[in-house]
Design a protein that fits this description.
There is one protein chain. By secondary structure, the protein is mostly helical. Helix 3 packs antiparallel against helix 8. The N terminus is likely disordered.
Amino acid sequence: MPTPRWTDTGTQSSGWRTFDALSYLLLLLAVSCIRKPSHPNQTESAETSLRHDTIEGLRQILTSPYLHSVILVAAPVNFALTGAQFSAVLTLADAGHSPKELGLARGCIAIGGLLGALCAVRIQRLLPFHHLLLTAISTLLALLVASSVLNGSLLMVAPLAAGLFLAPAVNSLLFGRLASTTPPAHIQGRVISVVVLAATGAASLAPVVVGTLVEQRGSTTAMTTAVAAVALSLTAAGLSRASLREGRKA
């Protein structure tokens, strides 16, 4: 009797989970090796609970126009990127593509992100801060529209890979100035944690929203939602021009 295909798929999935577990173990070991604080002369506040730190980070964000802008730009972009990738996988699966082809598609998208991380610094040198931000988000918007047009074809992953290539540059542009816009050193980590939580929380919500839309309204609606999220981010970047420049000069 021939071996069922799910057996091979399960073995490969187990291998990838083992690899992920090892990567997190290495990350844990690296963090545990940090022995000295970045500001050794800074006296830590007396109260250090999660609730207190979160409230203090939120209080700082509410008083900073730059931090408002970062959240309004970064959260929709991260939602759109994660949602578009998940929508592509569901769409290709519904179109009858094999698990091997789905894996190849995911791999191509991931390679785009890896190359983007390696080239992020060079990309940031091409244009001034705000011009580059608007150009990158506009390009991402066009790429998602192109991916929507190619819906159901393996070619739809090419624009997504190109979009993910731009993501590291956009995120580092936004998050790279957080330390300089949060003067008290002892609350920088709290502020950054709240901002990152907002961005990654939006990305975590994307598969739920996109999966529901694909099931009830179809993949076109799901991709349209991702496009709308990027359009929202582009609008926020345009309207927050002054505050983003202020943060850049800080």
